[in-house]
Amino acid sequence: MPSSDILIVGGGLAGLFCALKLAPRRVTVVAPAPLGAGASSAWAQGGIAAAIGEGDTPQKHMQDTLVAGAGICDRDVVLGMANEAGARIDDLLAYGVPFDKDDEGHLAQSREAAHGERRIVRVRGDMAGHAIMQALIARVRATPSIEVIEDRTVEDLITHHGRVIGVMLRDAEGRREKLAAGAIVLATGGIGHLYRVTTNPAESRGLGLAMAARAGAIIADAEFVQFHPTAIDIGRDPAPLATEALRGEGATLVNRDGVRFMQALHPDAELAPRDIVARGVFAELQAGRGAYLDARKHPGGRFTEAFPSVAQICLSAGLDPTHDLIPVCPAEHYHMGGVWTDARGRTSLGGLWAIGEVASTGVHGANRLASNSLLEAVVFAARVAEDLSARDEPQFDIAPVESFLRSRVPQSPLIAQPHIEERLRDTMTTHCGVLRDGAGLRRALGVIGALEQEARDQLIKNMCATALMVAAAALAREESRGGHFRTDFPHADPNQARRSRLTLREARRIASGL
Ligand code: SIN
User: Fold this and answer.
1) 38, CA 20 to 30 Å: which among 195, 197, 369, 377?
2) Which of 274, 383, 425, 477 is an active site residue?
3) To test the ligand 1 pocket, which listed residue (112, 336, 368) has its Cβ within 8 A of the most ligand atoms?
4) What is the CATH number of the domain that holds 454?
5) What pTM did the predictor assign?
6) CB under 8 Å, gap of 24 or more: what pairs does 435-443 form?
7) Catalytic residue status for 274
8) What is the pLDDT of residues 252-287, one digit of tens each?
């Protein structure tokens, strides 16, 4: 099928929600793995933040989001998202998501760090991501207007005079195919696997960001990467998550000597902002003192019932969380930066929209508030669906599309170069991770440039391009703010309290020292 009216690239929460909201309009969804398998949304242990409880308001939700975002969120966009939360939760209920309810049948809401109210809707404790994805996948499979192409990776966006008109796909054997589309919605997720330790699936490699950047799109806030403080350190890749809600329930962080190290670092101790806790854990590990989550008393005997996913992971590693300390480390968890979009999800390129983690809408600022990511995914997926529904049929020029479809597809086998991926992950972790400085970032940019030259396969080149965007933006921001901590500029600078915008060409200029 060489052409499609609307093509959604990515089969996570944002992509599937957008496809469902567009029904009965015909859409094609392309995903790199069977639906549900390669999507970080399915792994979310938190829930969805929604100010729908008694005494809560979208304004309060906005305020908490702005504080977490460390001064650079787009206030209007945040308020808009908070306002639409209730309607999107209703949509998810209608799609069959079994959110937890209280005895009176109202949605049960719990509290998470940095939220001033109980406003997180969940499913069976820590199963929200899995349950939401299961419900949406079933609904998508039952919707005849949605065609799903699984096991295809998009490696390139094809443009004509600045408008995106199609994509180049590859299957698992490396065979290329082209697909033209009137509108392309990127929903490819984050960048976790550019780092040595991540909580995200292997498909989160920054490919969508790279393709958009190579096509000339503006990338915003690329330097802001969120590291989760409590990935379970049992040598797995990806690293399983021990949800922050455990600390909300009273679990503490201790080092090998049993010292609660966060108490000395922040008045809120374990419930301090995520970046501060991540740096605290990182410091203990760097000092060789170890870092552990102590859940033996709280939640103690309730652990398995309240956190079934985490309990199962611990048991599979021979740990009994009611008796053993859980070893933890910081792990790349979420990218606040991404392809710049406006409030309707439009990117700076005609024909291209972006939603979910690959997008940067201005909602998260320098540090995402817990449980705002699934909310942002559904709010902006619905807005993009509305924007596309307001248009009639494809608005592209037929001639370039026909010429694209007639053109020969260059075929070459997949070229695996695992040493490049490994070196890239180590470089990003060492120099562009929890702590950064100018000298390290310059070194990283040199290494990334050399790896990009050495890369033979477009997928690896794409990983290098995204790494370059992140490192160049991190070098350009000479201050510390939210998830971006520069040891050579350890304070926030009010003069830099704004979002960043960078093209790939500008990032290359920064990398070359111009
Ligand atoms: C967590 O449950 O700790 C993660 C939730 C989130 O990242 O929003």
Assistant:
1) 369
2) 274
3) 112
4) 1.20.58.100
5) 0.96
6) 435/279, 435/282, 435/485, 435/487, 436/474, 436/484, 436/485, 436/486, 436/487, 437/486, 437/487, 437/488, 438/475, 438/478, 438/486, 438/488, 439/488, 441/471, 441/474, 441/475, 442/475, 442/513
7) yes
8) 999 999 999 999 999 999 988 899 999 999 999 999
